[in-house]
Amino acid sequence: MKKKETAVLLSQEKIGPGIYDMWIETSLAKEAEPGQFLCVYPRDKSTLLPRPISICQVAEALKADGRNTEAGSAERRGRDGRGALRLVYRVAGKGTAEFSGYLAGEPVEVMGPLGNGFPLEAGRGRKVFLMGGGIGIPPILELARRLEAHKQIIVGYRDSNLFLAEDLEKQGELYVATEDGSAGTRGNVMDAIAANGLDAEVIYACGPMPMLRAIKRYAESKGIPAYISLEEHMACGVGACLGCVVKTVEKDAHSHVNNARICTEGPVFEAKDVEI
Ligand SMILES: Cc1cc2nc3c(=O)[nH]c(=O)nc-3n(C[C@H](O)[C@H](O)[C@H](O)COP(=O)(O)OP(=O)(O)OC[C@H]3O[C@@H](n4cnc5c(N)ncnc54)[C@H](O)[C@@H]3O)c2cc1C
Ligand code: FES
User: Fold this and answer.
1) What does each C-alpha distance from 39 to 3, 108, 173 come to in angstroms?
2) Using one digit for the tens of pLDDT, what is the confidence trace for 36-45?
3) How many CB atoms lie within 10 A of CB 225?
4) Which of 54, 76, 109, 123 could form a disulfide with 139 if both were Cys (CB 3.0 to 4.6 A apart)?
5) CA of 276 to the centre of ligand 1 (A)
């Protein structure tokens, strides 16, 4: 059940140019699933809409996570039953710029967990690709932590700022691609698959649209399912405004149109079901 609450910022760290790593203490951690997201409300009321940010990591018991105990009084929070969520984001405009200035102990208005999340059953016990591109990499971390499978994690970056790579390599075989060739395979995640001679039975992915289109084509050519998270523009975040629709292959049973709302029916879709 989604709900709105005032979380507390536990820690925030800059982990790359314009990229921030934030932990918040929140009861929403108890229900959060990989691939779901939170809406974070800027305090500046001229920034009307909340900003969707994916759940990067879930810590249900704060004591279990070294990073969070550093933030202090973790035992008390653990007893209160509030866990913590990690959000990793790139400053894109006014809202995310505001978030990047928040300090430990400050309140953060959030709503969530929102969206459907990745289907874990589809990949359990299988050989899988977990693919992330740029700021689509954060949700891949919690997915990798939860999924019991032969995990090949393939992530694409612009350059040698390999944010989250240290966390990801603990979760499976890690393959890196960089646009400038400064680390791993020069090129994109598809180039990394080819260069390393990789194959899989199921794909999970989040990243920019050209990457997701390439993954959809690849999955179709191999006859395997691909579950892609579409981090498109959003407005209300809760299904009310139709500001986030994606064209679907099948008609919706209720509305009889070839549309789905990314914020509620998504953000994760099987690639074969959407026209991107
Ligand atoms: C389900 C979902 C999950 C997301 N998860 C993350 C995440 O984990 N980390 C992260 O850094 N970002 C994530 N995003 C993108 C993030 O929501 C936007 O970058 C943010 O809302 C921008 O707000 P702003 O006020 O800073 O910038 P704005 O002033 O609103 O926009 C600044 C610029 O960014 C562009 N922009 C805004 N939203 C998006 C978007 N969704 N995709 C591409 N361009 C956009 C605008 O067109 C504009 O050019 C996610 C988006 C969705 C829909
Ligand atoms: S953002 Fe309003 S319906 Fe999806």
Assistant:
1) 10, 10, 31
2) 999 999 999 8
3) 17
4) 54
5) 18
- Short-list 157, 89, 72, 147, CA closest to 117: 147
Q: Answer yes or no: pTM beyond 0.85.
A: yes
Measure the CA–CA gap between 211 and 203, rounded to whole angstroms.
Answer: 13
pLDDT in tens, 124-166: 999 999 999 999 999 999 999 999 999 999 999 999 999 999 9
Tokens standing for residue 107: 């309140």
Q: CA 226 to CA 218: how far, in whole Å?
A: 9
Peptide bond into 267 cis (omega under 30): yes
**Residue spans of beta strands (DSSP E) within 115-267:** 127-133, 150-157, 173-178, 185-186, 202-206, 226-229, 245-248, 259-261
Give 180's DSSP letter: T
Contacts of 223 (CB under 8 A, 6+ apart): none
Question: Does residue 86 line the site of ligand 1, with CB under 6 A?
Answer: no
Class of domain 127-275: alpha beta
Residue type, 255: S
In CATH, which superfamily holds the domain spanning 3-114? Translation factors (2.40.30.10)
Say if ligand 1 is within 6 A of residue 15 CB: no
Query: What is the distance between the alpha carbons of residues 131 and 129, in angstroms, rounded to a whole number?
Result: 6
Report domain extents, the chain: 3-114, 127-275
User: Which CA distances in Å does 56 have to 186, 216, 240?
Assistant: 26, 23, 25
How far apart CA 6 and CA 4 sit, in angstroms, is 7
- Return the ligand number nearest the Cα of 97: 1
Residue 81 Cα to ligand 1 middle (Å): 30
Pairing of strands 150-157, 202-206: unpaired
Confirm or reject: Cβ of 48 under 6 Å from ligand 2.
Answer: no
Q: What is the pLDDT of residues 209-230, one digit of tens each?
A: 999 999 999 999 999 999 999 9
